[in-house]
Specification:
Blueprint: H1 2-23, E1 30-34, H2 41-57, E2 61-65, H3 72-79, E3 87-91, H4 94-104, E4 116-131, H5 140-149, E5 155-158, H6 164-176, E6 181-184, H7 188-196, E7 202-206, H8 207-215, E8 220-224, E9 249-257, H9 262-276, H10 279-287, E10 295-296, H11 297-317
Parallel strand pairs: 1-2, 1-3, 5-6
Antiparallel strand pairs: 3-9, 4-7, 4-8, 4-9, 4-10
Helix pairs in contact: 2-9, 2-10, 4-11, 6-11
């Protein structure tokens, strides 16, 4: 009987080793997928976050840009990647808008929100409602009054359909009861160029993109789309202050596939929480005018659900391109 027991114990020892190996995380490099090109909010956040995450995880963290289709290519890639925690995604609110835009267009969504688990919100930057300085509008009220007099005459510019500028202005128009004409471009740079060149007259871009141009007198800032005034623009009101019940943010968040094991997810959550507080990351974030605005998984999930529903409602109400 003793010999049989010893044999059974020896048989179980390798299995126990396998379980321990499975529980250990991470044991190899971790990848952060950014679904956008270098220079965008997701990439700019991921780059300084990666070394901070390395220090927290005690493992290499690599940022990989998988770009295309306005963020859909990289997001779809992560939705089918192994659910082992070694593939993270740092993305913006397009994870909410792309599936709804696919549905509105009659396409099968390339991915859905419920394929992902939110790990943390990293930052949330309100957009700045801006106009060309040659325009007569010195306030949001003047812009709204003019737009009501001549629907679809005023041109607003964005980095492309369903990007933050597009959605911020769409939500603003729907809230204010006005119509302006959309000029989509191929990115934030071209959108700013179109606005500065007088090819469009209104937009809603990030604080970091707006500040240099506004300080040089090349843009006029009318409001921000957040819940409070910004230190960089203390005299600029929020749209909410002015009576428009809306908030739109260019936010970045960390996500993983929903099938990632709970113990691995908890390790990632703790590491991201530590990384966002890392002094080097905080310093880099403030330098980019994208300071951390951290929400842990449960709070971020509730906030994400509410934000996604607001954006989905706005997308459903956007007229078809040939509609008047």
């Amino acid at each position: 009987m003793l010999r049989i027991s010893l044999a059974g114990l020896l048989f179980l020892l390798p299995l126990a080793g396998d379980v321990a190996a499975q529980d250990a995380f991470p044991t190899r490099p971790v990848t952060i997928v950014s679904p956008y090109p270098p220079g965008g909010a997701a990439d700019l956040t991921a780059r300084p976050l990666a070394p901070a995450l390395e220090r927290a995880l005690k493992q290499s963290v690599v940022v990989v840009n998988r770009v295309g289709a306005g963020g859909a290519v990289g997001t779809q890639f992560v939705s089918t990647a192994p659910a082992d925690g070694y593939t993270l995604m740092l993305t913006v609110f397009s994870i909410s808008t792309i599936p709804e835009a696919d549905r509105v267009a009659g396409r099968k969504p390339r991915f859905t929100r419920d394929q992902f688990v939110p790990v943390a919100r990293i930052n949330a930057d309100p957009t700045m409602v801006i106009v060309h300085p040659s325009t007569p509008w010195k306030s949001v009220k003047e812009l709204v009054n003019d737009a009501k007099k001549r629907p679809n005459d005023i041109i607003f510019v964005s980095a492309g359909p369903y990007t933050v500028a597009h959605m911020a202005i769409e939500v603003f128009m729907q809230t204010a009861g006005i119509k302006m004409r959309h000029l989509p471009t191929t990115g934030g740079g071209p959108a700013m160029t179109a606005l500065l060149g007088g090819h469009a007259f209104v937009s809603a871009l990030s604080t970091g993109a707006v500040s240099p141009q506004a300080n040089a007198g090349k843009l006029r800032v009318l409001a921000n789309s957040g819940d409070k005034r910004l230190a960089a623009f203390p005299n600029i009101p929020t749209l909410k202050e002015l009576g428009y019940d809306m908030e739109v943010y260019l936010w970045t968040g960390m996500f993983v596939r929903k099938e990632v094991p709970p113990n691995v997810l908890n390790t990632i959550r703790a590491a991201v929480r530590q990384a966002v507080q890392d002094p080097e990351f905080v310093k880099a974030s403030h330098k980019m005018q994208m300071p951390p605005d951290y929400l842990d998984a449960p709070e971020f999930k509730a906030w994400w659900d509410k934000d996604s529903e607001m954006l989905a409602n706005a997308i459903r109400r956007i007229p078809a391109p040939d509609a008047k």
